[in-house]
Structure formats: C-alpha cells, structure tokens
Design a protein that fits this description.
By secondary structure, the chain is of the alpha+beta class. The chain has 23 helices and eleven strands. Helices cover about 60% and strands about 10% of the residues. Strand 3 and strand 4 form a beta hairpin. One of its GO terms (biological process) is ubiquinone biosynthetic process.
C-alpha cells in the first residue's frame, strides 16, 4: 500500500510540473505533436522546462535529487538549459530550518553547539540531498565544517526503494532483457550505498581512509587534498571536518582568473580517478561538481579538494585486474582480447562465438578512437555497447555500477575543463605502468615482499609440521577397504533398482495389454 501511494505521488508531482509534456515534447513524431496539444490544455506551464524538472526532483526527495545531480554532468546527453538548472541540485537543495539542525547537533554530540564550538553559524553554507553544512570554529581556533543529517531521511528513502524493488521485480518478470540486467541486484546495491550514506560516522571513516591514501607529506600529497576528520565532534548524525577553501570545479571562469591550468587540471582528474580505482581499490564515487573544489591557495594552487564522502566504491583484486586488462585492450584496439575476457569472466554465455563478439565490439568502439574528448561521449559508447550486449546476453555486474557512475562523472568534469582532452591517451600510460607493476618482475618482487611477513611466522613451525605429517600412521589400507565396501554396496543398490525397474516395466506392459484387449 505504501509503495502504491508513493507511486501515486510520483505521478501527481510529474503532472503538476508537466514532466509528461516534457517527455513527449522530446519525441519528434506527428502523433506526439497532436498529443502535446491535448496535454497542454487547461494547464499553465509557464516555468522553463529545466526549472520544472529540478523542482519536481526536489519535491520527490533525495533519490531523485541524486539522479538529477548525476544527470547534470552529462551536457552531451541533455540540453544546456536543463543541465544548468539541474546543476543547482549539487549544493543548493532547499535547506531545513536551523533550529532543527541545532536539535540534531544537540542529540548527536550531547550538548548545544554553542557549548561545543567557539562559534556555530546558524545559516547553512551548503545544502544537499542528504545533509547540510554549517561553518563553525573549534575551541582551539581551528575552522571546521559541520555536516548535519537531514531529519527523517530513512523512511523517505525506504519508500522509494520499495517502489524501485517492485519495479525491478516487474521488469524481471516481464522482460528477458530485464532479467539479463539483474535490476533487483542493482537496486540492492543502491540500497546498501544509500543507507551507508545516512550514517555520518561511516562517511567520516571513508574520509579518513581517503586522507590516508593521499596523506599530506606522502608521495601523492600533490594530487588530492582531503580534509582532516575531527573525531571528537562526530556522531552518526553529525560529521565535523577541517574547513576547506577553494573554488568549485564547475566555476571555470574563477579558475582561469586564479591562474589554474585547466588542461593540467583535467589530466590530473583522470589520473586521480584511476589511482583510486586501481592502486587503492577504494574510490570517491560521488564526484559531481558540487563535491569537488580546486585550491586557490598559492601553496597548493590547482590541486583538487575532495568533499562529501558518503558514497565510496571498492574493487576486489579480480575486478581491478579484469578492468585494467579490458581498458588496455580497448586502448590498443585489441577487440579479440576484450571478447575473450568477457567470455572467460562469465559475463557472456560460454557458448558465445569469440569472433562474433569481437566484431560487434569493434563496430561499437572503432568510430570513437583518435578523437578529442569533445567528440567522444562515453555515455554514447556505453549505450551502443548496451544495445550490442542484448544480442549476446551480456550480464550487467551490479558491483560495478558505482564505477560506471564515477567514470561518467569524470567524463562530465573533463568535458567542462578541457574539451580537447584525449581521455584514452591520458589513461593508457597509467594503466600500462600499473599492469607492468602487477604482472612483470616488479609484481613478483612486491608479492614476495608482501608475503614475507607471513613466511617469517610460518618457517619456524615448518619442521614440526613436516614431522607431524610424516609421523601419522598409514591408514591408506583402511581407506581402500572402506572404498571397496562402498563400491560393493553401490553395485548391490544398482542391481536392486534395475530389478525393481524391470518388474515395474513388466507390470505396466501387462496392464496396457489387458486394457487394449
């Protein structure tokens, strides 16, 4: 019933803001033109279409807001006016009242924010789909940002997830293509990450891990700046971190005025993305422009600043190796290797003909190589691959949904910063170096080094374990005799079953003979 009521609300909100008219107006066909006349009768749709879509997503709640955030970075797939309006969802979602935020801080930290902090700004500086941010000052004078969870978020998200699960189940039952996409598993993965995002202590832990991976003073310190977590001022509904100062990555004009090299910034973004994915297996998975700043401090000018760590992704060693080999095969245009990897990994049925899959992948990807990023759309490549995958029954891997989303975000950012960036040439040297370290002599040396600590513990025990094994009594004769007894028993059982089957067959034959006389 709750799912049905939520569906009714979605339909009513869509009608209120004219989203039905928005969808139909994008279809060029004589029938849809007549349908538009009917849809517009008696309705005042004076607001621009982008504003109507944004307001509808805000009204429907956090899941829809997140959908709009991702969509806003895909200016190659949606009109500019809609993309500009949806970009407002990144950090300008309507805030909730400040007195509610103060109550949440009181419950989370056990004291009123005026007693916890030297100062606490009532007016939020940013408001997103899950939480809003207030600036504050610690008693020791350090500037911090306090993230406060929106109230009553879990029930709202659960309603939408119930609806998504019902839709996924319906798709699987009605469509063979839908079953191949495994929508219920994708929704379950989305469910997990959304509920993780509602626990700000988990987000603080994600931030701390990412900061260690790009530790100040370490070899990657000049790649990414991650704020320090103030653990004494954190709770499940309150997350306090070092205050970051910079320019939103989407404000290209301000970046140019500050003297930031946009071409280098675009290349750095690709390298940071692949470093997180393949070196660490732990990556920031919500990299829309509202969550990424660029430092304008002369000491760190042009470095990325990461914010909002509610959604992170992780990759297993198998995933990393498989993806790296796929990327390199794509970059080298070795489509036979791509097809072979898909078959060996089980993404396509074992009986798939390798040369047929190779030809289909070549037809999808070959037209996009040797072009600047301005002429390449990863979204369009994925759409063509998706169409091809239907023919070969390729299964979508739910654990890689966040990775796909992150790659699309990176493409959107790169397109804004430097339309001439060649995504393939930027990523290829990094992946070749990574594969050399994983597969060559360097990988063997690193493996020995990694395992040597365990060997140091096991080697002293080795003589005792060998002696224990050699001193064990020989029970092979007993085992052989037991196997022979089991074989004889199995043979007797088989003969008995054969006799029973013969008797039954004779009985059935006699019965049929009697009936047919």
């Amino acid at each position: 019933m709750m799912t049905f009521l939520r569906l009714i609300r979605i339909i009513l909100v869509s009608l209120r803001y004219g989203l039905d008219e928005l969808v139909v107006s994008g279809i060029r066909h004589p029938v849809t033109e007549r349908l538009l006349v009917v849809l517009r009768k008696g309705r005042k749709l004076d607001m621009p279409r982008g504003m109507r879509l944004r307001l509808a997503l805000e009204t429907l709640g956090p899941i829809f807001v997140k959908f709009g955030q991702v969509l806003s970075t895909r200016r190659d797939l949606i009109p500019a006016d809609i993309a500009d309006e949806l970009a407002l969802l990144q950090d300008r979602v309507p805030p909730f009242p400040s007195d509610v935020a103060i109550d949440i801080v009181c419950k989370g930290l056990g004291r009123h924010p005026d007693l916890v902090f030297a100062s606490f700004e009532r007016q939020p500086v940013a408001s997103a789909s899950i939480a809003q941010v207030h600036f504050a000052v610690l008693p020791d004078g350090r500037d911090v940002a306090v993230k406060v969870l929106r109230p009553n978020m879990a029930p709202l998200i659960d309603k939408d997830l119930r609806l998504m699960r019902a839709a996924a189940t319906l798709i699987e039952k009605l469509s063979a293509d839908g079953r191949r996409l495994r929508p219920r598993e994708v929704v379950a993965e989305f469910d997990k990450y959304l509920h993780d995002e509602l626990d700000l202590l988990r987000e603080a832990a994600n931030c701390s891990q990412l900061r260690r991976n790009f530790a100040p003073g370490g070899p990657r310190a000049d790649m990414l700046i991650v704020p320090e977590v103030m653990w004494d001022y954190c709770a499940s509904t309150v997350f306090t971190m070092e205050r970051m100062r910079g320019i939103p990555v989407s404000h290209v004009g301000r970046l140019i005025e500050a003297g930031v090299d946009l071409k280098k910034l675009a290349r750095d973004g690709v390298e940071i993305c692949f470093t997180q994915m393949f070196d660490d297996g732990f990556f920031h998975a919500d990299m829309h422009p509202g969550n990424i700043y660029v430092s304008d401090d002369p000491r760190t000018l042009g470095q990325y600043i990461a914010l909002d760590f509610g959604i992170v992704g992780s990759l297993s060693e198998f995933d990393k190796n498989y993806l790296a080999q796929n990327f390199l095969a794509f970059f080298r245009r070795d489509y036979r290797q791509v097809a072979r990897l898909h078959i060996e990994s089980g993404w396509v049925p074992r009986g798939t003909r390798e040369e047929e899959l190779e030809g289909a992948i070549r037809a999808c990807c070959e037209p996009y190589f040797d072009r600047p990023l301005a002429e390449i759309s990863l979204g369009q490549v994925l759409m063509r691959l998706f169409q091809t995958s239907r023919r070969f029954n390729v299964e979508i891997q739910p654990q890689l949904v966040l990775l796909q989303k992150t790659l699309l975000n990176i493409e959107g950012l790169g397109r804004q910063l430097d339309p001439s960036l060649d995504l393939w040439k930027t990523a290829k040297p990094y992946l070749e170096r990574w594969m050399h370290e994983r597969v060559g002599w360097a990988a063997l040396r690193n493996g020995f080094k990694r395992e040597s600590e365990q060997w140091a513990q096991m080697l002293p025990e080795l003589p005792r374990l060998v002696h224990h094994q050699l001193a064990r009594p020989d029970r092979s004769g007993e085992t052989l005799a037991e196997l022979q007894r089991l074989r004889l028993a199995q043979q007797q059982t088989n003969r008995l079953m054969a006799a029973i089957a013969g008797i039954l067959a004779v009985g059935v034959a006699v019965a049929l003979w009697a009936v047919t006389r």
